[in-house]
TrEMBL record:
Superkingdom as given in the UniProt entry: Bacteria
UniProt similarity note: Belongs to the outer membrane factor (OMF) (TC 1.B.17) family.
Pfam annotation, one family: OEP
Keywords: Cell outer membrane, Membrane, Signal, Transmembrane, Transmembrane beta strand, Transport
Organism: Noviherbaspirillum humi
Signal peptide residues on this chain, from the entry's feature table: 1-36
GO cellular component: cell outer membrane; efflux pump complex
Name the UniProt record assigns to this protein: Outer membrane protein, cobalt-zinc-cadmium efflux system
SUPFAM superfamilies for this protein: Outer membrane efflux proteins (OEP) (SSF56954)
């Protein structure tokens, strides 16, 4: 009698589980038409959309425009200075003339060729650095879009498998409930199947939330023009064969945008040192003047030279030299870090690709075959529910590992492309 009471109590719980599973699956099926109505984007469309309107890229482009304007500023000539003085002359002695007096002078500071060339070259190097910074921003934005794109595809695949797992768990729970009610299986099987169903339901809900998070991150990387709800086009990215690591490293050292920026900043610092040293030269200005009083009129032309006696610009020259040394050290470190990061991404790509091949060719198929055998054995009473659920769990883990490995190989390829391209 106690066993029958516990059995009767388990029936409403199982029925509620099955009813909730039916409602969840029904809601998912009802949501399918709305999914088809949402706009569908390919990866290239998302990239084009971001490159055209993302505020981060627009800000970087404006920084390049500001650097070009700084070149025009460096090319500008010094402004002439005009001085005019006027007044009256009064006689203090008899016979001395009285009347108005005035003077006019024009001073033009000369832009010495060494200083001008160094200043313009430093501004030009800064433009090169800002252009490299723009390429770095575009490259980083492209990397974010690709990673979040593959992340969303991964989460959608996980959500699809989670829905399938919940559907399978509901079928198992229904089947086990029937066998328990007919006395063909112990009540423990129903408890275990019920727990598996609850776990599958929890995993499905978590997978759905991860899909929404990944979609929000991708939208943030693309920009506000991308609608809140969208879908990705079904694309099957290829896994290319990579050239040797040494060839990739040579390409990266020649094309990497970060290195290009550091090199441009180093060139700018070198020109700044040259500019600071040229500023030790005396500043020269040409002055022309005109004077008029009641008796005479006079004109004059001369030079104004500032003699660098007290200030030899030792401080600015030393500061510019220290900045140049710092950037040279940073360039060496950046080159070393680039080689190491590229090698790590290269190895990760090989490892992940081997994992994908192993899972697709052997492990997943064996787990699926073991699941079919365990299901048949449980159906004919040769195996218990634990063996069946364990086989299902092994198959589920292998399938999830394949999804994760496919994402890892794509992420490694994105890192390789980011490091060795401009």
């Amino acid at each position: 009698m106690p066993n029958s009471q516990h059995l009767v109590r388990s029936r409403p719980s199982s029925a509620r589980r099955l009813l909730s599973a039916f409602l969840v699956l029904l809601s998912l099926c009802c949501a399918l038409p709305s999914l088809h109505a949402e706009p569908v984007y390919t990866l290239q469309q998302l990239v084009d959309m971001a490159m055209q309107q993302h505020p981060r890229l627009q800000a970087a482009r404006e920084q390049v425009n500001a650097a070009r304007a700084a070149v025009e500023t460096a090319r500008a000539l010094p402004k002439p200075e005009v001085e005019w003085n006027g007044g009256r002359q009064r006689a203090r002695l008899p016979g001395a003339p009285a009347g108005s007096v005035q003077s006019l002078s024009l001073t033009q500071r000369l832009d010495l060729p060494p200083q001008r060339a160094a200043r313009i070259d430093a501004a030009g190097a800064f433009v090169t650095a800002e252009q490299a910074q723009l390429r770095t921003v575009e490259r980083d934005q492209l990397r974010r879009i690709k990673l979040h794109y593959h992340e969303l595809r991964r989460r959608q695949a996980e959500f699809g498998t989670a829905v399938e797992d919940m559907r399978t768990s509901a079928q198992i729970l229904e089947r086990v409930t029937v066998r328990v009610n007919t006395g063909e299986a112990p009540r423990y099987d129903a408890i275990k199947a019920d727990a598996e169903f609850l776990n599958a339901q929890k995993s499905m809900e978590a997978a759905r939330l991860r899909v929404e998070t990944a979609r929000a991150l991708l939208r943030n990387a693309v920009g506000a023009d991308l609608p809140a709800q969208f879908e990705l086009a079904a694309e099957t990215p290829e896994l290319p064969e990579l050239p040797p690591l040494e060839a990739l490293q040579r390409q990266a050292l020649a094309n990497n945008a970060d290195l290009a920026q550091v090199r441009a900043l180093t060139a700018r610092a070198r020109e700044q040192v040259r500019l600071e040293r040229s500023l030790r030269l005396p500043a020269v200005a040409v002055r022309a003047g005109y004077d008029q009083d009641p008796e005479v009129r006079g004109s004059r032309v001369g030079l104004v030279v500032s003699i660098p006696i007290w200030d030899r610009r030792q401080g600015p020259v030393a500061e510019a030299g220290a900045q140049l040394s710092r950037l040279q050290y940073e360039q060496s470190q950046s080159e070393f870090a680039l080689r190491q990061n590229l090698e790590a991404a290269y190895r990760q790509y090989q490892i992940s690709r081997n994992q994908v091949a192993a899972l697709e060719s052997g492990i997943l198929r064996q787990a699926e075959e073991a699941l079919r055998v365990a299901e048949a054995a449980y159906r004919f009473g040769e195996r218990g529910i634990l063996d069946y659920l364990d086989a299902q769990r092994v198959f589920r883990n292998a399938r999830n590992e394949l999804i994760a490995a496919r994402y890892e190989v794509q992420a490694a390829m994105v890192d390789i492309q980011t490091l060795h391209q401009e």
